[in-house]
Amino acid sequence: MDPLFDRLGNLLRSVFQDSETGYGQNIKSGDPDLDEAWQELDDFLKHGKNAAAPGVKYSAPNLPPKELKEDYATLNVPFGASFGDVKKSYKKLLSQYHPDKHSGSEEKTKMATEITQNINRSFLRIKGFHRDGSIK
User: Fold this and answer.
1) CATH number at residue 70
2) 6-64 pLDDT, tens digit each
3) Domain range for 82
4) Are 98 and 116 in contact (CB under 8 A)?
């Protein structure tokens, strides 16, 4: 099996190796989009920047403020989850902890009411952030 892996390694090296840099080589496939993407990758690997598209800046995803981290945890979703995931979890938790479901015991009803209030508060804060960027 070793000769097979050696041959595969040699083939990959021949495709991805350039005598100057050790990175990609200029490959012309006949497809201009593929050629442009390959050149952009090669420039990035050689120079560490996007030389093919100057002025284009990449940024991290738009994460919510850290003040909402606890609210996401209250709703059992990862920090920065989409609003659809937040809403889905909110509905599930409301169904699970609704005070009417725990009406058999006054203590359980009180606990369910507190949990439901926390869930509602967290959902409204996240909803406000997604709607207009405000946190209340």
Assistant:
1) 1.10.287
2) 777 666 666 666 544 444 455 566 778 877 877 887 777 777 655 445 555 555 567 78
3) 66-132
4) yes
